[in-house]
Amino acid sequence: MSDELEFKKLKKEYDDIEKDANAFLKKLRDELIELLLRNSIVANIVESRVKEWKSIIRNIKEKGLVVDKIINIEDLIGIRLIFLFKLDIQKAGKIIEDKLFLIEKKVMSARLGIDQFGYQSDHYKVKLSKDYLRLDTWNIFRKFRAEIQVSTLAQHIWTAVSSKYDYHSERNPSEEISRSLALLSAKLEEVDRDIEGIDKDRQEYREQIHKDLKEKSVIRYTAQLDIDLLDFALQFWLPSKNRIEHEFFNDLLKELKSFNITTIKDLYDLIDEYKDAAFRKDSGFYRFYKDRSRDLLDELSKKQLDKGVWLSQVGLIKRMLTLKLEFNWRSKDLEHKHQEVKKSE
């Protein structure tokens, strides 16, 4: 068969499966994100694509890609999960291996010789496992496979550079470029190590905060408030049902400082004095909104109502600040009136 006839045949096959391939891509992408979130892992960037026809043709013509059937192209469907921490790469890889049928796994960094350069992501070639194939909504995609790449942000930078200039570990660029690439690769590895070090220090700091607050350490109670201290303090002193996934601690910290609330003890005193009034206000909001149409509410508000509350933990503290402001205003007003009475006597 001539190349032209072969290309026409492959193009027809591509057109026939393109719609289903994109549907599978979206479903698998959403499933992976959900699986990660269930394990408290957040991918900083998620990229996905069905390989374009022009890319397939270019690979056949320029790189000698042999294609008998479009469906058999290993990276026809590709997903890239990009994380901040290398530890998350390991966790994500385990989830992929546990939940999907693993065809092939390539830990790319382990494949490089000492005379090669590169800082590349791990690759997983997968198809649906039996657990998914039992479900009709997944079984329709049984013929598809996918390539999932897992990397850190630093590794992602390397992938972008090496793809742009087509410099991979098996290539032989000039000696000068090789030195530059090796230096870049080393710097990116160092970035990952530094990020890991920062994360380790933060985890140790948070563990110490937890211990100190649990034991009511005097030293911790007099410490200056920061994001991590604020986070743990609200976990300790406010109802867990008010907690939302992404609390705005940074904004709250600035607002607290504007009220001269700068230590854990200052925060504790605020909560101790105004928590009951804030809880009553939250209950009032809940009663007001719970029987009204939910069509106008966002998803977060609906979730809060399902838990029997309205305000988040940060929202409760802001309500306490409002109460404190109102109390201070009333106190000043009463003092002013008292002084006016004394003047008139």
Give an overview in words.
The chain has 13 helices and five strands. Strands 1-2-5-4-3 form a five-stranded mixed sheet. By secondary structure, it is an alpha+beta fold. 62% of the residues lie in helices and 10% in strands. Helix 7 (175-214) packs parallel to helix 9, helix 9 packs across helix 11 (264-290) and helix 11 (264-290) packs across helix 13 (313-344). The chain has two domains: 3-169, Beta Polymerase, domain 2; 216-344, no CATH class.
Briefly say what this structure is.
The chain is an alpha+beta fold. It has 13 helices and 5 strands.
- Distance from N terminus to C terminus (CA atoms, Å) equals 113 Å
Return the domain count.
Answer: 2
Task: Identify the CATH class of the largest domain.
Answer: Alpha Beta
Structural class: alpha+beta
CATH topology of the largest domain: Beta Polymerase, domain 2
- Which CATH architecture of the largest domain? 2-Layer Sandwich
The side-by-side strand order for the widest beta sheet comes to 1-2-5-4-3
Number of helices: 13
Radius of gyration: 29 Å
CATH superfamily of the largest domain: Beta Polymerase, domain 2
What is the approximate shape? elongated
